[in-house]
Design goal:
Layout lengths: L1 H18 L18 E4 L9 H8 L3 E7 H4 L9 H12 L3 E7 L14 H17 L6 E4 L14 H18 L4 E8 L3 H9 L8 E5 L10 H14 L8 E6 L10 H17 L5 E3 L19 E2 L11 E2 L1 H13 L3 E6 L6 E7 L4 E7 L6 E2 L9 E4 L13 E2 L5 E2 L5 E5 L4 H7 L7 E4 L3 E3 L3 E4 L6 E5 L2 E5 L4 E4 L3 E3 L4 E10 L3 E11 L4 E8 L2 E7 L6 E9 L2 E13 L5 E7 L10 E7 L5 E4 L3 E5 L1 H4 L2 H4 E7 L5 E7 L13 E8 L4 E7 L6 E2 L5 E9 L4 E7 L5 E3 L1 E4 L3 E9 L6 E4 L10 E10 L6 E15 L1
Parallel strand pairs: 1-2, 1-8, 2-3, 3-4, 4-5, 5-6, 6-7, 7-8, 19-27
Antiparallel strand pairs: 9-10, 11-12, 12-13, 13-18, 14-17, 15-16, 15-18, 20-25, 21-24, 22-23, 26-27, 28-29, 29-32, 30-31, 30-33, 33-34, 35-48, 36-39, 37-38, 38-48, 39-47, 40-47, 41-45, 41-48, 42-43, 42-44, 42-47, 43-46
Helix pairs in contact: 1-6, 5-6, 7-8, 9-10
């Protein structure tokens, strides 16, 4: 009877909560002073003697730990928090905090699977609310599940069931303890479709932050574009007036992945944390604390930064790996400082970050450019500087302990820390200069302004150069810097803002303007004396422009001009340039669109040599054939025929083929392969293969394959086909960030290459599917 009453009380609670507009979730606490933004994943509730001291000593101030429903509710409605009470007591003693993951099934409900019934969700939410109430005031972040977009949601990923649970839990926590922090959804990778589904359903009404797990085996800095897209998606769905931050809730590198070792792991750890900080991510949780096994070939055993036995250092519970010293060194040099800004060097692969504590400044610098060894910032000069490597904790400075900034900043693939021994005036001004936003969104064409403010922290007046004007700032005075920035209609426009001080020099910040109404121009293969270009206009705005076709190797040489007239509501157009014989001196070409009204350059494409595949342009259905692949036991039908969709070809007289398919349930895909080996050969060193695809919104994945001279096969991914109509896809052919399919996998493309599959259609869902798509104008791209 008591259980029935509790269920009824909870049901009433949920109904009442649902009828009231959700309260505004509390903001995250201020984590900006290093290392308050740094945490690590653990897998225990009872630390070994000295273990918490070792974690704290490295600089971690947070731990992330499973908060197991099954481990707490052993009997229906009865909760045993004792194990977590001990963990919280230990964390409190060491001035640390926890992210507790509300996760996994309970044998008393829904057969132990992830909750999928109203009863199971109600029980989970009741337990979650009781847990938050029990540990209120300890600064815990409560995270909704662990990687629900993957295998941790049982029996299989189900975004709808996850959302139902997340909303019920959010309402229950809001009712029980509205001042506590609730976050989610802790996705494996930055899974945009899963995240958008959560946002659309209203989860952002309850979450104080969005947590993701940005795992990758590439450089940490590659996450920046994904963060940008996620920030934009959050802004699109966030309740009015709220800015919801991103948390990197779990991310690390295994020291035994291919081409990895303990040294590379150690270099990537601080780069990962610093990259997050520079991308406005206030909290980073490294995975993992200690090794989970000893198998030298099992990556899952080697994410840790300490080893479970073989202690070689007195007073330490575990033997540190190099990554442990790397995080300790980062804390030693940046502890007590706050991130100020990234300074722009002119090279996107250089990272120079300024930290400030209100009295002094620190720099940390590194590069992802393997050919680069130094950053020229001679304007930050005149002060003796201690220089430390990424494993130095302050007591083991390497062979250049003192230097001046006239030497430039020495950079490598590991962070180097610079500590001025005397005040540096330009660096003080740089720290007193407000940070430009990571990005802003606006429509083009226009002249934009991104205002920043600089305060004079010096004890003497300074003169600033502001474009053609100048201004004297007395000590303590401030002024705004807002240069004119020409915005066209390319997707992202870099915005450079400089601080130019008389007698001291100049430093730059870089922001990005995200164009709300972008245009994309794609060069199609040249046919006779005509050069076609395709313009995509997804926003449907009217466009009135002049298009110039220029010689890619001589950009000032305009070879042909065409008018662009796109009416409102039209999303694409094809323009034709007439080329007289001899007008173009090279195969490379580029296109410049100039707005008729403002004379602002709307788009300025990179010079490319776009060569068509002759075997496709003449009789494509004979030169290419369709081959079924995957599980031979899974039935399929597929055919290839020369045909044009109902809405017409990509451009006049350009051929297309129709790929018709039907897959039964299971692993199945089809490949459009060369009918003869000679058709597959490609000259030179291409950077990509471009292909126009007329989609059927099936959600299946489009890929291609190519093989190099050593027999290695690469399989670049073109993404899910979730659209109808024509869309241009480029498959990278440099080998970078490209999946390996066969051969020795040495990470390098050995030229020449040949096409294995011009197009590969993969049944992503493994469920029965059928449809038809069209392919047109495959083009080999050589960037100049």
């Amino acid at each position: 009877m008591r259980q029935t009453l509790l269920k009824l009380e909870f049901a009433v609670l949920v109904l009442v909560a649902a009828s009231i507009a959700p309260a505004v979730p509390p903001p995250l606490p201020d984590l900006s002073t290093f290392p308050n933004s740094l945490g690590v994943n653990i897998h225990f509730t009872d630390p070994k003697p000295g273990e918490m001291e070792q974690i704290y000593g490295a600089g971690f101030r947070w731990v992330r730990m499973d908060f197991s429903w099954a481990g707490i509710e052993h009997a229906r409605g009865e909760y045993d928090f004792s194990a977590y009470d001990r963990l919280i007591a230990s964390l409190d003693q060491h001035h640390m905090h926890a992210i507790f993951i509300l996760d996994y099934g309970n044998r008393h409900y829904d057969k132990g699977l992830s909750p999928y019934t109203d009863e199971g969700r109600a029980a989970f939410a009741k337990w979650a609310a009781a847990s938050v109430h029990h540990f209120k005031g300890h600064g815990v972040f409560w995270e909704m599940w662990n990687e629900p977009n993957g295998s941790f949601w049982k029996p299989a990923r189900n975004v709808d069931d996850y959302i139902k649970l997340a909303l019920v839990v959010g309402k229950a926590i809001e009712e029980a303890e509205p001042g506590e922090i609730y976050i989610g959804p802790a996705t494996s990778t930055i899974d945009m479709p899963f995240l958008e589904a959560c946002f659309k359903a209203g989860c952002l009404q309850y979450w104080s932050a969005v947590s993701v797990h940005p795992y990758r085996q590439t450089d940490p800095e590659t996450v920046a574009d994904e963060y940008r897209k996620l920030r934009k998606l959050i802004a699109q769905y966030a309740p009015k007036g709220r800015q919801i931050p991103i948390i990197s809730g779990e991310w690390g590198y295994s020291s035994v992945w291919k081409d990895f070792n303990e040294e590379r792991q150690a270099k990537y750890l601080p780069r990962e944390i610093l990259t997050n900080i520079a991308n406005d991510v206030p909290l980073s949780i490294w995975y993992d604390w200690h090794e989970d096994g000893k198998d030298p070939k099992e990556p899952e055993h080697h994410f840790g930064i300490v080893k479970p036995d073989g202690v070689n250092h007195p007073g330490e519970v575990y033997d540190p790996k190099k990554a442990y010293w790397a995080v300790g060194g980062m804390n030693a040099h940046l502890g007590g400082f706050r991130f100020s800004k990234r300074l722009w060097t002119g090279n996107a692969e250089d990272y120079v970050l300024v930290f400030d504590d209100g009295k002094a400044q620190r720099l940390v610098a590194w590069t992802t450019d393997p050919k680069h060894t130094g950053v020229d910032l001679p304007t930050i000069s005149g002060s003796d500087t201690s220089i430390f490597g990424y494993l130095d904790d302050g007591g083991r400075s390497f062979d250049r302990p003192f230097a001046t900034f006239e030497d430039g900043l020495v950079v490598s693939d590991s962070p180097t820390y610079y500590e001025p021994r005397k005040p540096n005036e330009l660096l003080q001004l740089a720290a007193a200069w407000t940070r430009a936003p990571m990005d802003v969104t606006m429509a083009g064409p226009c002249i934009a302004h991104i205002p920043t403010t600089v305060r004079n922290p010096l004890d003497r007046p300074i003169t600033l150069y502001l474009g053609k004007a100048s201004k004297v700032l007395k000590p303590g005075e401030s002024t705004t810097i807002a240069p004119d920035i020409e915005v066209g209609r390319e997707g992202i426009v870099p915005a450079m803002i400089d601080l130019d001080v008389e007698g001291l020099g100049k430093v730059w910040q870089r922001s990005s303007i995200i164009v709300a109404n972008p245009l994309k121009v794609t060069l199609l293969p040249r046919t006779g004396f005509s050069q076609y270009a395709r313009i995509e206009n997804p926003g449907g705005d009217a466009v009135r422009a002049i298009a110039h076709l220029t010689d890619g190797l001589v950009p000032e040489h305009i070879c042909s001009t065409a008018r662009v007239e796109i009416n409102a509501g039209e999303t694409q157009a094809t323009i034709e340039f007439s080329i007289s014989k001899g007008e173009m001196n090279s195969r490379a070409a580029s296109v410049v669109l100039v707005d008729k009204t403002t004379s602002i350059h709307l788009v300025n494409t990179k010079p490319v040599d776009a060569r068509d595949l002759a075997s496709f342009s003449e009789k494509p259905a004979q030169a290419w054939t369709v081959v079924a692949d995957g599980d031979a036991k899974v039935a399929s039908d597929q055919s290839l025929a020369e045909a044009v969709p109902a809405d017409g070809p990509v451009a006049p007289n350009l051929p297309a083929v129709r790929l018709s398919y039907r897959f039964d349930k299971g692993w199945k895909f089809v490949r459009v392969a060369p009918a003869a080996k000679t058709d597959a050969k490609i000259e030179g060193k291409p950077t990509s293969l471009g292909l126009w695809v007329h989609g059927d919104a099936s959600g299946n994945i489009g890929r291609m394959r190519f093989t190099d001279s050593t027999g290695q096969t690469f399989q670049p991914d073109g993404g899910r086909i979730n659209w109808n109509g024509w869309r241009y896809i480029e498959f990278p052919m440099t080998g970078r960030d490209t999946a390996h399919w066969g051969g020795k996998d040495d990470g390098t493309v050995h030229y020449p290459v040949k096409i294995d599959s011009l197009f590969l259609l993969d049944n992503a869902s493994r469920q029965p599917t059928s449809g038809e798509i069209y392919l047109s104008t495959p083009t080999i791209i050589y960037e100049k």
